[in-house]
Design brief:
By secondary structure, the chain is α+β, with helices and mostly antiparallel strands. It is built from eight helices and 19 strands. The strands form five sheets. Strands 9, 12, 15, 16, 17, 18 and 19 form a seven-stranded mixed beta sheet that branches. A four-stranded antiparallel beta sheet has the order 1-8-6-3, with no helix packed on it. It has a four-stranded antiparallel beta sheet with strand order 5-4-2-7, with no helix packed on it. Helix 6 packs across helix 7 and helix 6 crosses helix 8. The relative contact order is 0.12.
Length: 433
C-alpha cells in the first residue's frame, strides 16, 4: 500500500506551510526518516523526513506552494510496487512555479556539473542538505571527499565549511552583504560565504521567511519606543580566562567554550536585579515573567531566526554553553521545533561577529529589550590602580548596546542594568566548569 506524505503539524498555532524544496524526485528511492522535503512556516524552516521507505511515487504539491497542515503532498510506494508517473500539482500551486522534474534526465538533457552520475546524485541527496550542496558547488568540492558527522553520516554545514577551511579548495569569495552570524562565536570572523548567484536587473520574490522578518521588524518599530544606550566593557579578564580554559573545558564537557555564555550569564544576573527589563507590556498592564527565557539571534544563509533558551536563570555556565550551542546548530540545520522559537523574555544578538563595533538592534516583540554584542578588539585604555594612579595598557574591549522600549523602561533603569552587566563581565569570578 502506498504511504501518503502529508504537510506536518509543526505546532498548535500553525495551520499551513510552504514547500520550499523537494530533496527527491519521483522514482527516487527513499529511506524512512531520510530528509524528503523542506518547508517554511511562520515559526520555523524545517526538513521533513520520509514517513516510510520505498520509492517516491509522486509529488502532488510543487515547490513554492502553500497548503494546510495534513494535506497530502505526495506518496511513497513500496519497493516492489511500480512508481506512477508524477502528477501535476493541484490548483493551489502557483501557475508560474517550476514543474516537477522527471524521474531521470533524458539522453538529450545535460547532467548538472556538480553531479557526475545518478548514483553520486542519490548519495549526495541522502547525505546532505541543499545548502551543503550549494556550498560544495560554489567551492568546487566533491562531497564524496567530505566526512559527515551528522546522523547516519550526514554532511552538515559545519562539515563542509570545516573541509573548505582546512583545504582552501578555492580562494574565498567576497563576503555576502548579509553574512550569517553565529550566536556562539565571537572571537574571530569566519570564512566569508559566497553571495547568492543573482543577475543584476532580476526581480526576485521574497522568501516566506524574509516576508515574515520584514513584517515583524516594521511591527516592532511601530509598537515600541526604541531607545539605545551603549557601554564599553574591558573584556580582558574573560579573554584570558577563555584562552586558559578552552582546551580543558572541551575535553571535560565535550563542548567548545565560546564567549556567548559569558554575555548571557551577565545579562541573566542583571535581569534578576532589574525585572522590569525582563517584562512585557500587555495593554495597560505589565507582565513580569517568572523566568528568564533568552532569545539568541542566529543569522542564517536564508534569513534570521531567534531560538529561545528557556529557563536560562536556572542554568549554570555549562548549561548555558550547551544550550546555546545546541540551539544554534539545530537552527542552522533546520531542526528547531516551533515551541523553541517562542516565549522569549529578553534577546541577545551578535552584530560583532564580523567585526562591527556595535549595533542598534530592533526589539524582538513582545520583549522590552535586546542586547547587542559588538566585536572584541584590542585598544589602549587608561587603567586606574588601587592607589589612584593612571597608566595606559592594551586591553580587549567589547561594546554592548541595549535597545529598550521607553514606554516601559526609563533611561536610568536601562543604564543601571547595563552598568551591572559591565561590572559582572569586568570582574568575572565564576567557575566556567
Amino acid at each position: 500500500m502506498p504511504t501518503d506524505i502529508v504537510m506536518p503539524q509543526m505546532g498548535e498555532s500553525i495551520v499551513e506551510g510552504t514547500i520550499t524544496k523537494w530533496l527527491k524526485k519521483p522514482g527516487d528511492k527513499v529511506q524512512r526518516d531520510e530528509p524528503l522535503f523542506e518547508i517554511s512556516t511562520d515559526k520555523v524552516d524545517a526538513e521533513i523526513p520520509a514517513p516510510a521507505s520505498g520509492i517516491l511515487q509522486d509529488i502532488r504539491v510543487s515547490e513554492g506552494s502553500t497548503v494546510q497542515v495534513n494535506t497530502i503532498v505526495g506518496t511513497i510506494s513500496g519497493e516492489g510496487e511500480a512508481a506512477a508517473p508524477a502528477k501535476s500539482a493541484p490548483a493551489q500551486a502557483a501557475p508560474d512555479k517550476k514543474k516537477e522534474a522527471p524521474a531521470a534526465p533524458s539522453k538529450s538533457e545535460p547532467v548538472p556539473e556538480a553531479i557526475e552520475s545518478a548514483d553520486a546524485e542519490g548519495d549526495e541527496l541522502a547525505r546532505s542538505s541543499p545548502l551543503v550542496r550549494k556550498i560544495a558547488r560554489d567551492n568546487n568540492i566533491n562531497l564524496a571527499r567530505v566526512t559527515g558527522t551528522g546522523l547516519g553520516g550526514r554532511i552538515t554545514k559545519q562539515d563542509i565549511q570545516g573541509f573548505i577551511d582546512g583545504n582552501q579548495a578555492v580562494p574565498a569569495p567576497a563576503a555576502a552583504t548579509q553574512a550569517p552570524a553565529r550566536a556562539s562565536a565571537v572571537a574571530s570572523p569566519p570564512t566569508p560565504r559566497p553571495a547568492p548567484a543573482t543577475i543584476p536587473g532580476d526581480l526576485v520574490p521574497l522568501t516566506n521567511m524574509r516576508k515574515i522578518i520584514a513584517q515583524r521588524m516594521i511591527e516592532s518599530r511601530r509598537t515600541s519606543a526604541h531607545v539605545h544606550c551603549m557601554y564599553e566593557v574591558d573584556f580582558t579578564r574573560i579573554v584570558h580566562l577563555r584562552a586558559k580554559n578552552k582546551s580543558g573545558f572541551e575535553q571535560r564537557n565535550g563542548a567548545r567554550l565560546t564567549f556567548m555564555p559569558f554575555f548571557v550569564r551577565a545579562a541573566v544576573l542583571a535581569l534578576q536585579q532589574f525585572p522590569i527589563i525582563n517584562a512585557s507590556l500587555e495593554g495597560d498592564s505589565i507582565r513580569y515573567h517568572r523566568h528568564v527565557n533568552v532569545g539568541i539571534a542566529v543569522a542564517l544563509d536564508w534569513g534570521l531566526i531567534v531560538p529561545v533558551l528557556k529557563g536560562a536563570d536556572e542554568l549554570n555556565f555549562l548549561g548555558l554553553q550547551r544550550g546555546i550551542t545546541d540551539l544554534g546548530e539545530r537552527a542552522r540545520n533546520k531542526k528547531l521545533k516551533p515551541e523553541e522559537v517562542e516565549g522569549s523574555t529578553f534577546t541577545v544578538t551578535n552584530p560583532g561577529q564580523f567585526g562591527a563595533v556595535f549595533g542598534l538592534p530592533i526589539i524582538n516583540q513582545p520583549n522590552s529589550a535586546i542586547m547587542g554584542v559588538g566585536g572584541i578588539t584590542k585598544q589602549p585604555l587608561v587603567i586606574t590602580d588601587d592607589q589612584g594612579g593612571d597608566s595606559i595598557a592594551i586591553r580587549s574591549v567589547v561594546h554592548l548596546t541595549l535597545g529598550y522600549d521607553h514606554r516601559l523602561i526609563d533611561g536610568a533603569v536601562a543604564d543601571q542594568f547595563m552598568a551591572l552587566v559591565k561590572k559582572t563581565l569586568e570582574g568575572w569570578n565564576e567557575d566556567v566548569g
